[in-house]
């Protein structure tokens, strides 16, 4: 009995300490409990890797033409102030990041079906499937009815498809484009659906969610399986699964950067060849800067800047290809805003200072930038569900949104 009373007293002390901390404005770090961002190694600090645009002039859209490729870049958690903060730190307030040179811009509303502040799963479902759903659901409506994603429907039209991310490739945002499950946490099931849906190029983290049997099945279906930057540099023109970390990437060398993964994906997906299914391929590629969100959850200003700039370097790769190709639509946006970031001028130095108002997602609008044929359709104020609907219109996908047959979803990865 004495022991039991002692345990109760100890528990009460812990509760009291937490209440006192909350009253003082302190809270346990979201990063500590939910996110695994790697600490920088000596020499890796800072943003020296960033190469700013050679010009601040807005890009000139090519003449109207057929949309043959779509590159959708998603900065997870990236609100307008995240972009502005990165700009001020990297090039100064009077200059531009690569994404800011895209000639078409607007803003996007992001609420989910059941919350004013969406999570990444519901937001990805909106961006991929064109429907609102509840937080934590992936590729299904609130009643668990699955809906086809724009990636899956373009794939049916003969387009190649790809996903790159600095999270696990089975994480909420990439999952929304090719999985249909009742919980974003079912990453083993999501990995099985990624393979079952035959996404051609998958580059990111999350090796622990791919069993030996699943990888053996992938090899049997013609996938190259890689795990290092050197292996990525030697890829053959064929489908590939690149898993460069057990879970999320460290985003430090010797891993490939998001820009390098995106460049490799674009090269693979755009290379003609009879060995692959489309001699003159069209492709859809989703690029996610996953860890902008993680850094913002932790209210880590330096890491938000770094992750936003790493994402912007991947956007640069998309822009370079689109300028040469002239038939590629590039869209840059975010799934939601994280951190309630405000920017204020430091009274003494006059520099921009970050002020975080929360460690959670907010309901703030996020930016959207676009370049290429059809890009004018992405100006003004859009809802996140409008983005795949307009991609569908520009690429001849109809009907959209459309329910997906349950029979098309792997039994062991059912959303039931």
Task: Describe the structure in your own words.
- This protein has helices spanning 2-23, 30-34, 80-90, 120-129, 150-156, 172-175, 187-196, 212-220, 229-233, 258-270, 291-297, 301-325, 386-395; strands at residues 69-75, 104-109, 160-168, 201-205, 224-226, 240-243, 283-289, 328-333, 337-338, 342-345, 352-355, 361-362, 366-371, 380-383.
- By secondary structure, it is of the alpha/beta class.
- The protein has a single domain (66-413), classed as 3-Layer(aba) Sandwich (Alkaline Phosphatase, subunit A), CATH 3.40.720.10.
- The strands form three sheets. It has a ten-stranded mixed sheet, sandwiched between helices. A two-stranded antiparallel sheet has the order 9-12.
- Helix 9 links the parallel strand 5 (224-226) and strand 6.
- The longest helix is centred in the last third of the chain and has 25 residues, at 301-325.
- Mean pLDDT is 89; it is low at 1-34.
């Amino acid at each position: 009995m004495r022991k039991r009373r002692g345990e109760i007293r100890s528990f009460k002390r812990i509760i009291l300490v937490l209440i006192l901390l909350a009253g003082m404005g302190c809270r346990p770090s979201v990063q500590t409990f939910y996110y695994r961002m790697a600490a920088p190694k000596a020499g890796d600090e800072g943003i020296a890797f960033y190469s700013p645009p050679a010009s601040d002039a807005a890009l000139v859209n090519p003449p109207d033409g057929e949309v043959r490729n779509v590159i959708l870049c998603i900065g997870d958690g990236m609100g307008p102030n995240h972009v502005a903060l990165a700009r001020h730190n990297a090039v100064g307030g009077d200059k531009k990041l690569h994404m800011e040179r895209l000639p078409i811009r607007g803003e996007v509303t992001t609420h989910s079906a059941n919350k004013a502040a969406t999570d990444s799963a519901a937001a990805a479902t909106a961006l991929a499937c064109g429907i609102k759903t509840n937080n934590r659901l992936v590729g299904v409506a609130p009643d668990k009815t699955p809906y086809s994603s724009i990636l899956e429907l373009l794939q049916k039209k003969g387009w190649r498809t790809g996903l790159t991310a600095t999270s696990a490739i089975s994480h909420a945002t990439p999952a929304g484009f090719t999985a249909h499950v009742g919980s974003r946490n079912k990453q083993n099931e999501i990995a099985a659906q990624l393979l079952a849906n035959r996404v051609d190029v998958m580059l990111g983290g999350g090796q622990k969610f791919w069993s030996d049997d699943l990888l053996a099945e992938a090899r049997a279906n013609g996938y190259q399986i890689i795990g290092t930057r050197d292996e990525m540099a030697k890829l053959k023109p064929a489908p590939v699964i690149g898993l460069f970390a057990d879970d999320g990437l460290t985003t430090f060398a010797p891993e490939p950067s998001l820009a390098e993964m995106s460049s490799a994906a674009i090269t693979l997906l755009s290379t003609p060849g009879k060995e692959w299914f489309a001699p003159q391929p069209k492709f859809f590629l989703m690029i996610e800067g996953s860890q902008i969100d993680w850094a913002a959850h932790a209210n880590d200003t330096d890491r938000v800047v770094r992750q936003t700039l790493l994402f912007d370097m991947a956007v640069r790769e998309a822009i370079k290809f689109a300028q040469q190709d002239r038939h590629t639509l590039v869209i840059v946006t975010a799934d939601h805003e994280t951190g309630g970031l405000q920017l204020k001028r430091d009274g003494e130095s006059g520099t921009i200072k970050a002020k975080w108002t929360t460690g959670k997602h907010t309901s703030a609008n996020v930016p959207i930038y676009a370049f290429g044929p059809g890009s004018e359709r992405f100006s003004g104020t859009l809802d996140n569900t409008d983005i795949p609907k307009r991609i569908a219109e520009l690429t001849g996908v109809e009907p959209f949104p459309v329910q997906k047959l349950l029979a098309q979803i792997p039994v062991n990865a059912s959303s039931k």
